[in-house]
């Protein structure tokens, strides 16, 4: 069973083999094999021309990638921690996302920016954020948040194929975890903008992103033993967002719980709630929509506080059980 | 055996004192089924059709169309084969005539069918959608959700079949009346723990055998054990006659078939009377004790409660006019020993 780091590497390798214009650049992605070992031996397999170690200068890295993309290449940028994208935000939000529109469609930027995010590694406030709403609120960017190795592989291949800039947010804690489903062999793509119904139930719909899909799965298993059956939906791509399965599920269950790791205030998952509230499926709700998200604080360094700052399995379990028991 | 059953002017609102009989839909001698319209009445607020509470035959029409009748006064008399009550107050005496007090509460106020906006109540979105679809005024719904919010469960329970609701309230009124009569009996209760598991069949059979050995403690020669079970129309009390003379296997299957029939509101007529004692098993509700209540013409009543995984609490109430304290203690000990 491949881990997510291995699945991402496999997808990059397939793309490298399929298209000569695909290359990887970033800090320590070459000889060192990447901050989290994702590119590993790719430097040795593909050489320094296609796996580029760069200086510590995120704005320059992304700027180089945008330029290369405009010139017909398909760069994959790795930023060591998603927190560091702040340094590169002008190139991401003002250049990569806008050029296609501002030039009347004459050029496009087929760039993928991969970056690890999330808490749980004791890396404190500047290395632990979930910044997906930064990117999801910029039109012109596509944003992918994979929750398992198989999806990561298929989605990354689609991201590399895509003519638009795609931000690919990988949760650090998922890198070393094999998925429940094995990673398919070959170069199969998973289309962007298609949510996945991970499991189906009749009592509650949970929409969760990234690592929260895994935590919610544990809750689904546990509550199934209590006779509570849950539909779990992983949007996979948060921009564009596929709400159709969420509507269809809520029309059956009448109850919706949304879960993300990032802070609750103005978080991505609020978009799911807003679209549900404005949809024709609203009238199917038999319970108030419940949101679980991180606290509105910088991620603490102390391990206990770091854990307490974001939803854990027990939190999801309690919320799920309460909704089903209290709203009939 | 037929029962005379006066169908009375129903109370349809808190302020209603009289109603005008618009007209009859039946005549003397007609056979009617439960739910058939018998007559129509009019008040200052609403017109409504009054339905037959049970299958039967119309014996006589009491009032003239156009008459103004006090609530609770008979409008017609029916003869029914089914006693509406689920137990027998009367022993071997005259047939029971249901009392107006029981029937006065039969008709629940009917919600106005007008569609209103219901902006002044809290309700989940689906409840609003369903209320509009079904023509329910949300202000008439009792909210049981968090923060006094109307949930779908509230809508659904309010929408229970009116005929069923009518039977439920009649049933409650009759049981309440029976218990009220039983309260006048001088009585005493005992409790003890038994460390064993037993099923209904064993409990019913053992208790019947003990009572049979004490004919001095019975008003009637046979033993009839009424068992309180849930039915579509509320509590039902089917009577198992001489259960100690049946095999446990036969009794088990009779209990099972009776329980499933009762869920649908169908207790065989022959099981509606002849009780000499009553058993109420609380274990399935995780309750550990309740004082057994005496019904009229019964000298004993037993409840069984859940105490722990391996122990049960059994309680006995006795009628002190027939049974002294010593007899009561002996009966309860004998029951504990037999389980």
Count, helices of chain B: 7
Gross morphology of chain B: globular
Query: Helix and strand succession of chain A?
Result: HEHEHEHHEHEHEEEHEEHEHEHH
Question: Which secondary-structure class do the elements of chain A indicate?
Answer: alpha/beta
What CATH calls the topology of the largest domain in chain A is Rossmann fold
Number of strands of chain A: 12
- Main-sheet strand order of chain B equals 9-16-15-14-10-13
What separation lies between the terminal Cα atoms of chain A?
41 Å
Number of domains of chain A: 2
CA distance, first residue to last residue of chain B: 38 Å
Question: Unreliable runs of chain A, pLDDT <50, ≥5 residues?
Answer: none
* Structural Rg of chain A: 20 Å
User: Oligomer, anyone?
Assistant: heterodimer
The level 1 CATH classification of the largest domain in chain B is: Alpha Beta
Low-confidence stretches of chain B: 85-116
The SSE string of chain B, one letter per element, is EEEEEEEEHHHHEHEEEEHEEEH
Average pLDDT metric of chain A: 97
List keywords for this structure.
heterodimer, A: alpha/beta, Rossmann fold, 7-stranded mixed sheet, 5-stranded mixed sheet, 18% strand, B: alpha+beta, Dihydrolipoamide Transferase, Chloramphenicol Acetyltransferase, 3 domains, 6-stranded mixed sheet, 4-stranded antiparallel sheet, 16 strands, globular
Mind sketching the topology for me?
The complex is a heterodimer of chains A (328) and B (339).
Chain A: H1 4-18, E1 22-26, H2 42-46, E2 51-53, H3 58-70, E3 74-78, H4 89-96, H5 99-102, E4 112-117, H6 132-136, E5 142-144, H7 149-161, E6 166-171, E7 196-199, E8 204-208, H8 211-224, E9 230-234, E10 237-239, H9 244-253, E11 256-263, H10 269-277, E12 290-294, H11 303-308, H12 313-326
Parallel strand pairs in A: 1-2, 1-3, 3-4, 4-6, 5-6, 8-9, 8-11, 11-12
Antiparallel strand pairs in A: 5-10, 7-9
Chain B: E1 3-8, E2 18-24, E3 31-32, E4 37-42, E5 47-51, E6 56-61, E7 68-70, E8 74-80, H1 100-103, H2 125-134, H3 152-158, H4 162-183, E9 187-194, H5 200-212, E10 224-227, E11 229-231, E12 234-236, E13 239-241, H6 248-263, E14 277-281, E15 300-306, E16 312-319, H7 325-338
Parallel strand pairs in B: 10-14, 14-15
Antiparallel strand pairs in B: 1-8, 2-4, 2-7, 3-6, 4-5, 6-8, 9-16, 10-13, 11-12, 15-16
Helix pairs in contact in B: 5-6, 5-7
